# Entry
Amino acid sequence: MKVSAAQIRAARGLLDISQQELADLSKVSVRTIVQFERGSKSASDSILQALKLSLEAAGIEFIPENGGGPGVRLSRNQN
# Structure
């Protein structure tokens, strides 16, 4: 499942983490995250995967398009 810039921003909001903190977690440059979230640059599949996996490890569940649109939520298994 591909994730959107809006999902990344929403996930950061739920976790209350900055772009810099996501960069540290995912090993993706903060500049790339800023540009992707702004919509000024697309991200490669490997970058999207790194962001997605890092956010999932932090407690985010990505919700696929299911008639209501894609989204994010906190995992029930979060501590």
Summary: The beta strands are 60-63, 71-74. The mean pLDDT is 94. The CA atoms of residues 43 and 70 lie 18 Å apart.
